[in-house]
């Protein structure tokens, strides 16, 4: 798992500029590559920096390791894509808890749990995004695992990983025809490509094989010479607001409803499985709104938020990129 997230950090750093270049949905702010890279980096470094004393008996617990990484990613998630990947990682850890070895059945269960949780985290989930790529990978993994009747061999695990990556690639290609904005710009979804890279890093790390760079050949908008699509599009108004807050389940539902009325791209997911003494769970909250003030007022009416960030959706756009080098 450490090797997976380390590979994913490197791969996303190398490809961040091209991912930014084709990022036009849900807003054309050209930062999906950067957001995914920073979020995966937080997950990877949480495992690299963990002291042995902190890890305790969890060193050989695949679920515990991923849960640690997922919580770090959730706390430091950037943007829609980073937040959804954090949800994916935290959910994937749950079926793996208590297991020292990854099998095809466990991986299929983890991918399925993760894609369901990611879809449910969004108030208004949209096909043709990284959600569709997560779903395709999970369904393919489940089908191959079922065909092998729970075979726990490394060979079966390899077949599940190969199937998940192939299905993810097919889902990425389909994204262009699922969203009008992507079809008009003749590009595939940036978050979907990022998720494909992450899944190929998982396959590579588990099987000890090289990344399949040819997966990206022919993806529309992804050649090195292709332009940064978003640079010619109008700026998006509004801001992205993110925070962490402890809420009861009822207050969490109330907050989701009120943010839905105020803005869009609402993502809410629990940070950690346990409630405090007052029955409140910690939630990571993400929303796009015209102005931050009303959204923060709603949040603060229900609790005391921490890790609050407010970012303009219309960011300065630098076609040269700021993270990593060109991956292709």
Number of strands: 4
Order of helices and strands: HHHHHHHHHHEHEEHE
Structural class: alpha+beta
Let me know the largest β-sheet.
4 strands, antiparallel
Mean pLDDT across all amino acids: 87
* Rounded Rg: 19 Å
State the helical fraction.
55-70%
Number of helices: 12
* Broad shape: globular
Question: Strand sequence of the main sheet, in spatial order?
Answer: 2-3-1-4
Termini Cα gap: 26 Å
Strand content: 5-15%
Low-pLDDT segments, ≥5 res: 316-328
Describe this structure in words.
- By secondary structure, the chain is of the alpha+beta class.
- 56% of the residues lie in helices and 10% in strands.
- It has 12 helices and 4 strands, in the order H-H-H-H-H-H-H-H-H-H-E-H-E-E-H-E.
- It has a 4-stranded antiparallel beta sheet, sandwiched between helices.
Describe the structure in brief:
By secondary structure, the chain is an alpha+beta fold. Helix content is 56%, strand content 10%.
Which features would summarize this protein structure in a list?
single chain, 328 residues, alpha+beta, 4-stranded antiparallel beta sheet, 12 helices, 4 strands, 56% helix, globular, disordered C terminus
Strands, helices and their partners?
Elements (H helix, E strand, L loop, with lengths): L1 H20 L10 H17 L3 H4 L6 H14 L3 H18 L7 H18 L8 H18 L6 H25 L1 H6 L4 H18 L31 E9 L1 H14 L1 E7 L10 E9 L2 H11 L3 E7 L16
Antiparallel strand pairs: 1-3, 1-4, 2-3
Helix pairs in contact: 1-2, 1-10, 2-4, 2-5, 4-5, 5-6, 6-7, 6-8, 7-8, 7-10, 8-10, 11-12
